[in-house]
Amino acid sequence: MTNPSDIVWHEQTVDRTAREANLGQRGAVIWFTGLSGCGKSTVANELDHQLNQFGRATVLLDGDNIRHGLCAPPGVLREEYSEEFANRFGLGFGAVDREENIRRIGSVAALMASAGLITLTAFVSPYRKDRDRVRKIIETSGAPGDFLEVFVDTPLAVCEARDPKGLYKKARAGEIKNFTGISDPYEAPPNPEVHLKGGDGATPTEQAAGVLAALVERGIIQPRA
Amino acid sequence: MTNPSDIVWHEQTVDRTAREANLGQRGAVIWFTGLSGCGKSTVANELDHQLNQFGRATVLLDGDNIRHGLCAPPGVLREEYSEEFANRFGLGFGAVDREENIRRIGSVAALMASAGLITLTAFVSPYRKDRDRVRKIIETSGAPGDFLEVFVDTPLAVCEARDPKGLYKKARAGEIKNFTGISDPYEAPPNPEVHLKGGDGATPTEQAAGVLAALVERGIIQPRA
After folding, report:
1. Is A16 on the interface with B (CB under 8 A)?
2. Residue-by-residue DSSP string for A104-122
3. Does A7 contact B at CB distance below 8 Å?
4. What positions constitute the catalytic site (chains A, B) (predicted)?
């Protein structure tokens, strides 16, 4: 094995098209955004469930699986790494930390879409610029149309009345700083691919079905014959 | 939709077992490690190819797709982000940067394995401690047996004679600092799940077939009837 052509590969033999053909679907990123309590995790989870019932290959990135690993805060990293390491790479909730949090998630979503997975993400992601950067990452590594922004547009009053994690109460009491919708802005997407109105009686199942229809319409999945 | 049980999910409805059943395989991480030029990318690419020919769902993480995105160096991040941002989160090749590079890759590989993908990685990953941390990440988020370390054990002299990217030459000339095998140590895995001897005439196809056999033996894939 001394032929250099055996050693250096410039591209992967299995390209994205082959991975997609293998899975019988197109890779894509379905990016849910909206206020805390708007229902985005619930709808994403329901969509994930519906897609899997159709045999589609998916992944769901959310705070639970991201903030305990890839984007862990300094306090978690300190358990395994040095103080210097934890302070530099650990992510809190300040503006720069949120920027990097979304950048890492976007980069991972791009890799997953390239592997052919329908990749669902559910993060507040309040800043338009950060979401637009993710769109660019996804579309540059793939193609326009690979990124679907889903705006879960539930009125703040409804989100705050739900307050499933008690976060709004703490934010109003000043116990949480930089809380989106209270002390930090939420920049609504001007042109989301899917715009779901929340808090008007639609169930998560109905909302998820609306996104599913958009995936079929765009050829990301095809109804089986 | 005012029932709080509609809003807060503590776990994903589609669990790992369901994703794996959907794909007909077990998620796993196949972690190739070895010196630059040892052939790890070539073997990983060949294994990826063989698995896809069997219809298995895989992903291959390598320097090309990681260092341009998730673990981009400061110079790349500066194109989109502030100087402060790029310097803090961009990754070079110093010890701490390599540590974080491997931590991010390990975290992503864990997410991909949880999605049911057979996840192949090809990085020098010279430090035993960093690889052991990845093993811990993978096994904690999944189960023991989900992480297979594949040591591509090619003698330094063979790697240096190949020198596919001309890096050894530059390292010997002092143009590259901290080069594994020349000016930085490579800590060989004491107990890799698969130990491939390189440079002894085995072709990448044969080496990949050896790893494939280990995957069958461990029940990660099953030969079709």
Report:
1. no
2. HHHHHHHHHHHTT-EEEEE
3. yes
4. 125 (phosphoserine intermediate)
Query: Residue A11 domain-assigned?
Result: no
B14 and A42 in contact by Cβ < 8 A? no
What is the per-residue pLDDT for A223? 74
Output the pLDDT for position B225.
Answer: 52
Which of B8, B58, B202 comes nearest A164 by C-beta? B8
**Tens digits of per-residue pLDDT, B119-151?**
999 999 999 999 999 999 999 988 889 999 999
DSSP A181: T
* Higher per-residue pLDDT: A178 or B135: B135
- Give the integer Cα–Cα distance in Å for A9 and A121: 32
Does the beta carbon of A189 lie under 8 angstroms from any beta carbon of chain B? no
ipTM of this predicted structure = 0.93
B67 min Cα distance to partner chain A (Å): 11
CB atoms under 10 Å from CB of A166, counted, come to 10
Nearest Cα residue in chain B from A105: B70
Strand-strand pairing, A147-153 and A194-197: parallel
d(CA B70, CA B56): 25
Rounded CA-CA distance A198/B146 in Å is 40
Please choose, from the candidates B57, B61, B65, B60, the residue with its C-alpha nearest in 3D space to the C-alpha of residue B27. Answer: B57
The CATH number that applies at residue B170 is: 3.40.50.300
Is B13 a domain residue?
Answer: no
Chain A residue with CA closest to B5: the answer is A164
pLDDT tens digits along A64-89: 899 999 999 999 999 999 999 999 99
Phi, psi of A41 (to 5 degrees): -65, -40
Which residue range is the domain that position A41 belongs to?
19-217
The average confidence (pLDDT) of chain B is: 92
**In-domain check, residue B182:** yes
Q: How many separate domains does chain B show? A: 1
Q: Which helix (H) or strand (E) holds A23?
A: helix A16-23
What's the number of CA atoms in the CB half-sphere (13 Å) around residue A77? 24
**Domain for residue A13, yes or no?**
no
The one-letter code for the residue type at A97 is: D
Could you say which of B45, B112, B203 has the minimum Cβ distance to residue A13? B45
